[in-house]
Amino acid sequence: MSNPELRLQIKRLMVENLMLQITAEEISDGIPMFGPGGLGLDSVDALQLVVALDKNFGLRFLTRRLPKESCRMSTPLPRPSNKRPKPPDDFGALRSAITDGHI
Asked: 51 vs 4, 19, 47, 59, 87, CA distance in Å?
Protein backbone atom coordinates (compact mmCIF):
# COMPACT_ATOMS: atom_id res chain seq x y z
CA MET A 1 0.00 0.00 0.00
CA SER A 2 1.44 3.37 -0.96
CA ASN A 3 1.66 6.32 1.42
CA PRO A 4 -1.22 8.22 -0.31
CA GLU A 5 -3.39 5.08 -0.16
CA LEU A 6 -2.55 4.63 3.51
CA ARG A 7 -3.35 8.26 4.29
CA LEU A 8 -6.73 7.91 2.60
CA GLN A 9 -7.41 4.69 4.52
CA ILE A 10 -6.64 6.47 7.81
CA LYS A 11 -8.82 9.42 6.84
CA ARG A 12 -11.70 7.05 6.05
CA LEU A 13 -11.18 5.33 9.40
CA MET A 14 -11.40 8.73 11.10
CA VAL A 15 -14.54 9.78 9.22
CA GLU A 16 -16.28 6.49 10.03
CA ASN A 17 -15.21 6.17 13.66
CA LEU A 18 -15.36 9.83 14.68
CA MET A 19 -18.54 10.63 12.73
CA LEU A 20 -16.90 13.60 11.03
CA GLN A 21 -19.22 15.74 8.94
CA ILE A 22 -16.82 15.75 5.99
CA THR A 23 -15.56 13.09 3.62
CA ALA A 24 -12.11 11.55 3.80
CA GLU A 25 -11.27 13.26 0.51
CA GLU A 26 -12.04 16.65 2.08
CA ILE A 27 -9.43 16.18 4.82
CA SER A 28 -6.27 17.85 3.59
CA ASP A 29 -2.84 16.42 4.26
CA GLY A 30 -1.12 18.21 7.11
CA ILE A 31 -4.26 19.46 8.86
CA PRO A 32 -3.95 19.45 12.66
CA MET A 33 -6.27 16.95 14.30
CA PHE A 34 -6.98 19.02 17.43
CA GLY A 35 -7.88 22.62 18.10
CA PRO A 36 -9.05 25.52 16.00
CA GLY A 37 -7.93 25.59 12.40
CA GLY A 38 -7.90 21.80 12.30
CA LEU A 39 -10.38 18.98 12.50
CA GLY A 40 -11.41 20.13 15.98
CA LEU A 41 -11.12 16.70 17.60
CA ASP A 42 -11.39 16.45 21.37
CA SER A 43 -10.19 13.96 23.99
CA VAL A 44 -13.12 11.59 23.38
CA ASP A 45 -12.30 11.60 19.66
CA ALA A 46 -8.67 10.86 20.51
CA LEU A 47 -9.71 7.84 22.56
CA GLN A 48 -11.98 6.59 19.77
CA LEU A 49 -9.16 7.03 17.27
CA VAL A 50 -6.73 5.06 19.45
CA VAL A 51 -9.28 2.23 19.75
CA ALA A 52 -9.90 2.25 15.97
CA LEU A 53 -6.14 2.14 15.24
CA ASP A 54 -5.74 -0.76 17.65
CA LYS A 55 -8.70 -2.64 16.18
CA ASN A 56 -7.81 -2.06 12.52
CA PHE A 57 -4.00 -2.07 12.58
CA GLY A 58 -3.06 -3.71 15.87
CA LEU A 59 -1.40 -0.52 17.14
CA ARG A 60 -1.16 0.15 20.85
CA PHE A 61 -0.01 3.33 22.55
CA LEU A 62 2.25 2.42 25.44
CA THR A 63 2.09 5.81 27.13
CA ARG A 64 -0.96 7.21 28.85
CA ARG A 65 -0.21 10.76 27.83
CA LEU A 66 1.02 11.93 24.47
CA PRO A 67 2.71 15.30 24.13
CA LYS A 68 0.63 17.83 22.22
CA GLU A 69 3.16 17.92 19.38
CA SER A 70 2.62 14.18 18.93
CA CYS A 71 -1.00 14.76 18.02
CA ARG A 72 -0.33 15.22 14.35
CA MET A 73 -0.82 12.62 11.68
CA SER A 74 2.86 11.91 10.99
CA THR A 75 4.68 11.40 14.34
CA PRO A 76 5.99 7.83 14.94
CA LEU A 77 3.41 5.37 16.26
CA PRO A 78 4.13 2.81 18.95
CA ARG A 79 5.16 -0.69 17.94
CA PRO A 80 2.31 -3.16 17.55
CA SER A 81 1.63 -5.68 20.30
CA ASN A 82 2.41 -9.34 19.62
CA LYS A 83 -1.15 -10.19 20.66
CA ARG A 84 -2.80 -8.00 18.03
CA PRO A 85 -3.41 -8.41 14.30
CA LYS A 86 -0.31 -8.16 12.15
CA PRO A 87 0.18 -4.56 10.95
CA PRO A 88 0.43 -3.81 7.24
CA ASP A 89 3.73 -4.52 5.51
CA ASP A 90 4.34 -0.78 5.18
CA PHE A 91 4.03 -0.14 8.93
CA GLY A 92 6.62 2.62 8.71
CA ALA A 93 4.40 4.51 6.28
CA LEU A 94 1.44 4.09 8.62
CA ARG A 95 3.53 5.29 11.53
CA SER A 96 4.67 8.44 9.75
CA ALA A 97 1.20 9.11 8.33
CA ILE A 98 -0.46 9.16 11.73
CA THR A 99 1.65 10.34 14.61
CA ASP A 100 2.94 13.67 13.40
CA GLY A 101 -0.59 14.97 13.85
CA HIS A 102 -1.05 15.44 10.14
CA ILE A 103 -2.79 13.15 7.75
From this structure: 22, 14, 6, 9, 15
Average pLDDT of 15-29? 93
Q: Which residues of 18-49 are buried (b: 16+ CB within 10 A; e: fewer)?
A: bebeeebeebeeebbbbeeebbebeeebbebb
Task: Fill in the amino acid letter for 28.
Answer: S
Domain positions in the chain: 3-98
Torsion of CA 82, 15, 32, 25, to 10 degrees: 110
Q: How far is CA 28 from CA 4, 82, 91, in A?
A: 12, 33, 21
> What is the second-level CATH architecture of the domain 3-98?
Orthogonal Bundle (1.10)
pTM for the whole thing?
0.59
